[in-house]
Amino acid sequence: MVKDYTTLRDPNAEYTMRELSAETMGVQAKRGGGRDVTITDVQTTMVDGNFPWTLVRVYTDAGIVGTGEAYWGAGVPEIIERMTPFVVGQNPLDLDRLFEHLVQKTSGEGSIEGITVSAIAGVEVALHDLAGKILEVPAYQLLGGKYRDRVRVYCDCHAGDESEPESNAAEAERVIEDLGYDALKFDLDVPSGHEKDRANRHLRGPEVGHKAEIVQAVTERIGDRADAAFDCHWTFSAGSAKRLAKEIEDLDVWWLEDPVPPENHDVQREVTQHTTTPIGAGENVYRKHGHRRLLEEQAVDVVAPDLPKVGGMRETRSRRVPLLRAGVVGRPLRGRTDH
């Protein structure tokens, strides 16, 4: 059965104050200068790359189209279809109000975290693209202007045999010499051959040693030609993460990323404060509220927000709390092959 998600009834809307449309808010003033633009439609498509990426397009009566990206996965296109009536007829230049309008209208569907946030972010990024085109300025100008002309990116490396330290070292050499990167990242949540229980987050001694060998092989091969980070993808227990971080403290590690699952903030803080190895996290943390404790409690050295999960461009920028120990690494749009 094909379901038209634009017609879903929201019973809460009948008795709550969650309506921030232009009509409800009494926004009537004309903009002039070609800025009286109206959204006519929102459409999505999935592009099967390294992930099934969800691309979003917002159309207007001026013939100008904005393109954005939501995070990959099932359910996101349906949520965006559900939200389309909330923005059709609105002026795309009202970025803050439209973002809050979508958050309020989908609060019952979980606009605090998860795929609802990613769906909102996809529309929000498209609105920024659209607003920049209408005003004939780059989208970054809408966020406060330029800090630099060039942005450093790292290459997310995948060796032929990722469990073999020398294979990772050889890939690091290739990426530096052939591709010209001076920043790299490798995975550590790879089989070592020493596992006894795949479902157990505990690292036995030989497993810790194997992962340290990968780090040592890469960092010694690249020397001072590049920085190297290492990703654990939220895999290990607190005790194992602390042992691993301790084991590689004497090596030149840019950061160790997501060594523990994101659910328990206290564990994240404990791991970070237990070691001098820089710890990065944030990819699986939603909205600016999710990052607040990470920063205020010094629970992370490098914060790495995933823009579609945080909630979009303005939500990413709005994390203006003191960074304390933390540096910031933003995740670029459209995939992870060229971080």
Task: Please give a structural write-up.
The chain contains 11 helices and 10 strands. By secondary structure, the chain is an alpha/beta fold. It has a 7-stranded parallel β-sheet, covered by helices on one side. It has a 3-stranded antiparallel β-sheet with strand order 1-2-3. Strand 2 and strand 3 form a beta hairpin. The radius of gyration is 22 Å and the shape is elongated. The C terminus is likely disordered.
**Spatial ordering of strands, largest sheet:** 4-5-6-7-8-9-10
The strand count comes to 10
CATH architecture group name of the largest domain = Alpha-Beta Barrel
Morphology call: elongated
Look at the structure and give the CATH class of the largest domain. Alpha Beta
- Our Rg estimate from Cα atoms comes to 22 Å
Q: How many structural domains?
A: 2
* % residues in beta strands: 5-15%
Estimate the helix proportion, in percent: 25-40%
Structural class: alpha/beta
CATH superfamily of the largest domain: Enolase-like C-terminal domain
The third-level CATH topology of the largest domain is TIM Barrel
Order of helices and strands: HEEEHHHEHEHEHEHEHEHHE
SS field, number of helical segments? 11
Distance between the termini: 40 Å
Low-confidence parts lasting 5 or more residues at pLDDT below 50? 319-328, 330-339
**What's the story with the biggest beta sheet?**
7 strands, parallel
Mean pLDDT, nearest integer? Answer: 89
